[in-house]
Design a protein that fits this description.
- The chain is α/β, with parallel strands linked by helices.
- The protein folds into 2 domains: 47-163 and 323-381, Periplasmic binding protein-like II (D-Maltodextrin-Binding Protein, domain 2), CATH 3.40.190; 166-322 and 395-447, D-Maltodextrin-Binding Protein, domain 2, CATH 3.40.190.
- It contains 18 helices and 12 strands.
- Strands 2-1-3-10-4-11 form a 6-stranded mixed sheet, sandwiched between helices.
- α1 runs antiparallel to α13 (349-359) and α3 packs parallel to α5.
- The longest helix is centred in the last third of the chain and has 22 residues, at 426-447.
- The chain is globular, with a radius of gyration of 21 Å.
- Keywords: Cell membrane, Lipoprotein, Membrane, Palmitate, Signal, Sugar transport, Transport.
- It comes from Streptomyces caelestis.
- This is Multiple sugar transport system substrate-binding protein.
Length: 449
């Protein structure tokens, strides 16, 4: 998996842009007063720590099992679990960064890492990892991905827990009934989307993500069809998102809305989109490995498959990078040694395997990645193979830009909805996105020492 070498040395404290929700939180380390500039303390290695789950609800059950195992193995440490929906996590951390109340440890994936690191919120973990039993046991690509996303000082601010990958889920029973071939190419994908649609019977060929998280999925469809393999042009200063090939690809993709998709897709985030696919008669769904177990519970293992994204021009598979997830130690925590013990435990072989089997994702612990369940979870095995066998080119998204998460969410998700509704052209949308990205890249370049 190709890792971007562009890294920011942005050292000034910046307030992450975007809509900050008026959310309050208590309990951080010992006194709940930690803010971004607080240096915190190592503590006694005992007592209570607070853990914020960045995918609360979806992963709550798995984390509570890991916490129970941890507390049994470490009876002198208690973990307070706080589950936060993925769509609200950045806003909640941003609020706590300014007003106090950060946890001791929390989920910190690549997509949010640069913004948190730029505000001085996270503790560097290189020394702790070097002295840990985890050293040499973590997937090197995942570690490098988090380093690349984190700031520019070549420090590691988050210990990887898992890697996700884009998956095209399709209903094998519906495809067989319609006499359709497996949607392994984009041409077959569009053919199936049309053929499986019968609005009179409330049957649709595809469900498109129009709500929170829509931009990454749209980028995946764009680059997959266009075959463009780099997010930046040869100068490294201008993005390729508004390349004419990408514009044409987005036009074709957005035109699916309401033609072969439900109208409700306009506002659907991933949870609503997944639930809709699991309960209805929709042929295809683009999501990632994380929803595999949901589909198994809803449909069983015989009615669907999860395969790597379709191939495009010349049989090439091009997809955008899915962010590596991880656990970070907040600098303001008053009990860092105990929090680090929790990170070590959660990413140990047994617990990392347990978590990723539940999530259907690729483990970060290399010993866990050898466990038998990997070969039994077909989408996970296919994804791992696609990322390692040379069949897939990854377009690395610029997670290193502190403004990336805001640009790709708050600033442009409403505009993408306008594209779906026909109120904004694909070209206008992508030109606007490109202008913002080029400005963020220029600012990042200026901040490098």
């Amino acid at each position: 998996m190709k890792i971007s070498n562009r890294r920011s040395r942005r050292a000034t404290t910046a307030v992450a842009l975007g809509a900050v929700l008026a959310l309050t939180v208590t309990a951080c380390g010992d006194d709940g007063s930690g803010a971004g500039g607080d240096k915190g303390a190592d503590g006694s290695g005992k007592g209570e720590i607070v853990f914020w789950d960045n995918n609360g609800g979806v992963r709550t059950e798995a984390w509570k099992e890991i916490i129970a195992d941890f507390e049994k193995a470490n009876p002198d440490i208690k973990v307070e679990y706080v589950g936060i929906a993925s769509t609200e996590y950045q806003s909640k951390v941003d609020t706590a960064l300014q007003g106090g109340g950060l946890p001791d440890v929390g989920g910190v994936g690549a997509a949010m890492l640069a913004g948190f690191a730029a505000q001085g919120a996270l503790e560097p973990l290189d020394e702790r990892l070097a002295e840990s039993s985890l050293d040499g046991k973590l997937n090197k690509d995942m570690v490098e991905s988090l380093k690349a996303a984190g700031g520019g000082d070549d420090k590691l601010y988050s210990i990887p827990t898992s890697a996700n990958n884009g998956v095209l889920y399709y209903r094998t029973d519906l495809f067989k009934k319609a006499g359709l071939q497996e949607p392994t190419t984009w041409d077959r994908f569009f053919e199936a989307a049309n053929k499986l649609t019968n609005k009179g019977k409330n049957e649709f060929g595809y469900t498109i993500r129009g709500g929170a998280g829509s931009i990454a999925q749209a980028l995946d469809a764009m680059y997959g069809q266009s075959g463009i393999t780099s997010f930046w042009d040869s100068s490294g200063e201008k993005t390729t998102v508004n390349d004419p090939k990408n514009v044409a690809a987005l036009e074709k993709y957005a035109a699916l809305y309401k033609k072969v998709t439900p109208a409700a897709d306009l506002n659907n985030d991933f949870t609503k989109m997944v639930a809709q696919w699991d309960s209805g008669t929709i042929g295809m769904l683009n999501h990632n490995l994380g929803s595999y177990q949901d589909h198994v519970k809803a449909l069983g293992v015989d009615k669907f498959r999860g395969i790597p994204q379709p191939t495009g021009p010349g049989g090439k598979r091009v997809q955008v990078s899915n962010p590596v997830d991880g656990l970070g130690l907040f600098k303001s925590g008053k009990n860092k040694d105990a929090a680090w013990k929790f990170i070590e435990f959660a990413t140990s072989k047994a617990e990392n395997s347990k978590f990723n089997e539940s999530a259907g994702q690729v483990p970060s612990n290399t010993d866990a990645a050898k466990d038998a369940w990997i070969s039994k979870s077909e989408p996970t095995k296919l994804a791992a193979d696609a990322l390692s066998d040379g069949s897939t080119t990854i377009v690395q998204l610029p997670y290193y830009l502190p403004d990336w998460n805001t640009i790709s969410k708050a600033d442009n998700e409403p505009n993408f909805q306008k594209v779906l509704l026909g109120k904004m052209s694909a070209k206008e949308f992508l030109d606007t996105l490109a202008e913002q990205l080029n400005a963020a890249q220029e600012e990042w370049e200026q901040q490098k020492g």
